Amino acid sequence: MGAGHDHGAMSMGAKHRGRLWIALAITGGIMVVQVIAGLLSNSLALLSDAGHMATDTLGIAMALAAIVAIQRSRAHPGRTFGLYRLEVLAALANTLLLFGVAILVTIESIKRFQDPPEVASLPMLVVAIVGLIANLVSLGLLRSGAKESINVRGAYFEVLGDVLGSIGVIVAAVVIMTTNWWYADPIMAIAMALFILPRAARLGRDALRILLQTAPAHIDIPTLEGGLKDLDGVTDVHDLHVWTLTSGMEVASAHLSIDDGADAADVLNRARERLRDDFDIDHATLQVEAADTEHGCDSLSY
Q: What are the residue boundaries of the Cation efflux protein transmembrane domain, all occurrences included (predicted)?
């Protein structure tokens, strides 16, 4: 069962890799354009959008690096679980970057409220429109992968924030062009920073759940334990652990106490089927014990 799952994960990575390369080229190119235009136009909102694009670029690059490392790691005999956790670490790094950019933009925006500088609205508007188109293309490339990989999901959320950010910059540029109200620039910059913070927090929470080996939120552990106990021949379930190795790859281990007359192989097969069919857990390590066996694992604190 484990080998089939690994092959599926590697195929998933290969499928996403081509789209990630295209998204990386788009976001990296637009980021450079936005930085130059933001400096020339003196637009903090545009520089804020460029900052988000920079985290997109780095985040997508880390996603690509993680996928390549995962695919190559299986050749190393000491990496029995591969390097699947690299994508989780990359997602956590993305979270920290997003928080950092949002905090810096907010601080600079507050400073600008005291004496808002003039902003060249026309180049700000043109570059924002180009950025919006590029972000929409990247969003379409990453959409399907975001449902399967926490790492790709991190890049997807960043690009989603940039789509709304580009719209915000367009609105701010139009306001400045029509009213010369310079406050529109720092206000929009702060709005973009505040928008991305909850999404960054959610991504970080998901990454930490995996790193701390917390049971997946969608799996009810008492129900899972009860489902194993209900199997014919099973008298007790103990030392049960369920965790996520990486996105979409749940893993479980448990000890099953069985009646003296029960067929151990049959119990194992039915237990694996229940975990797979009812809880989508394809990789499970199950130990069968006689009902009167003394459980040394009962004394373990974890």
A: 20-212
